[in-house]
Amino acid sequence: MSQRSRRVAVLAHCHLNVNTKVLGLAEYAGVRREVVLPLLEAGVGIVQLPCPEATYLGMRRWGMTREQYDVSAYRRHCERILEPTIDTLVALADDTCVIEVVLGVDGSPNCGVTRTCFGYAGGEIEALFAAGDSPRATDAPTAGVFMEVLRTLLADAGLDVVFRGVDEGVADA
Length: 173
Ligand code: SF4
Known about the structure:
This protein has one domain (about 5-165). The two termini are about 30 Å apart. The protein is globular, with a radius of gyration of 17 Å. The strands form two sheets. It has a four-stranded parallel β-sheet with strand order 2-1-3-6, with helices on both faces. The protein has a two-stranded antiparallel sheet with strand order 4-5. By secondary structure, the protein is an alpha/beta fold. The chain has helices at about 15, 35-40, 55, 65-70, 70-95, 125-130, 145-155, and strands at about 5-10, 45-50, 100-105, 115-120, 140, 160-165. The chain binds iron/sulfur cluster. Iron/sulfur cluster binds near residues 12, 13, 21, 52 and 53.
């Protein structure tokens, strides 16, 4: 007898693998338990999104802001790495699964849903600090680049999915 719940949640990569986050930003050891355990207990299947930053700049990248990622080549990168995920979600939906939610990471320049960060204009970081003008990122009430691309691709595929942001600094989801 099949035990499929036919319920699916789509999670930002680092909810299931904190190791992709920018150095110094890991607030849990591996999996974000507060996000994942309720899904496990409710029998919800989990689709893990790719991490757009780790696959673009690797693990020695600096923390960056939304406008630094918001260029055509990077958006194409997001579209390309999301292709298999969209195909999977379409197949699941065609098989009567319900794609219940996308859980992003509020505060991220890419995976933010209701909050992202702006502020770096570019230039030599060492020179900015030397001049006493250290760059500051500020919050903005909008989505990150990757979530924006994902939302468009889901809509193009005919999938209407709720997006929720999990705050980077808050444990409850
Ligand atoms: S928030 Fe998004 S871009 Fe940042 S580490 Fe997590 S999955 Fe990667």
